[in-house]
Amino acid sequence: MDDIITNAGEILAAYGITGEIEEIKRICDGHINNTFKVEVKDGSGKLRRYLIQELNTSVFKDPVNLMNNLIGVTAYLRKEVEKNGGDVDRESLYAYPAKDGKPYYIDNDGRFWRCFNYIYGAHSEQRVTSPELFRKAAKAFGKFQCMLADYPMEGLVETIPNFHNTVSRFADFKAAVENNISGRADTCREEIAFALAREKDCSVFVDLIESGDLPLRVTHNDTKLNNVMFDDETGDGICVIDLDTVMPGLSLYDFGDSIRYGASTAAEDEKDLDKVHFSLEYFRAYAEGYLSEAGSSLTKKEIECLAYSGKLMTLECGMRFLGDYLNGDVYFKTEYPKHNLVRCRTQFKLVKEMEEKMAETQKIIEEVCDKLGIEK
Ligand code: GN1
Ligand code: MG
To answer: Which CATH entry fits the domain spanning 8-120: 3.30.200.20, 3.40.1670.10, 3.30.2270.10, 2.40.160.30?
Structure first.
């Protein structure tokens, strides 16, 4: 999948958007899709902005059903935002229909495009720089989960089957080690051993789902900090974006993945591991924000597992990065040959610290629940 767009005119025309293209800017936020901000001057000279995004169809193999999910979920969210007296154009995504009525356009090269509303007066953040910022992200994700609480789960397809099934993620990882397609296994024996030693962790949530102890909910499943848009003025998280993996899942996937990415003192691909630490301060801020919105809707078991979910989602992501490194970098976008290995190392460093600090993390959850009057 090329990172460039050479046919913006063709794509916009397919959506019936006419006018002069003033600017096309690539937004480098994700590891999977290609996203561009496009500014068009319409007939009356007014500047209009759109977000056009190429879906990675080697990752998302059923793009049409994915778009059905997305249309259903965004229509539902818009109604919820309206009900709450919010601004639908800024607080929810909208996939414009193309001229043929479909919510996507397949271009002449077979690339799969969507066109979304551009959220004005808002920005994304790549790193947690203060507890306050992370608390705001947490509130946005907590609210998102609550807004979708009554969304009919049966109507959603799994856009990536077994996405957070850690048992199957572990099996994929083991296969990547055994196949060693890239021939790189000898460069990462320590990391491989780290993951293999944690096989037992991988079945904890799967078992709790099977026994009926953890409820499936409609979840986002990719709750990275940069999947929230923050209002330029208030700094509040106003809209959750990147809805391609919204499907049945665990609240713990969303909580844990946010912690994985945000409760770290360094970037996901920091090379200097001395800079990478699991921050209890950030963890507390996220727990406060998330539980203040979603706490009362969670079961006791979910609350009990929150601290552990951070570790498990971080382990899962580290295994995915390492697996991709061993498979020859075929899934995540990379900028240099060891990029996935570097990412894996930050994740495993965090896992190690999360394990060491598990008791303290658990205590924070209890304190936050007490503070908010949430039963645990
Ligand atoms: C990918 O596309 P992006 O960057 O939002 C990935 C997530 C990983 C994340 C790691 C569909 O998310 O699962 O946690 O990278 N998305 C998919 O940074 O695989
Ligand atoms: Mg994203």
So the answer is: 3.30.200.20
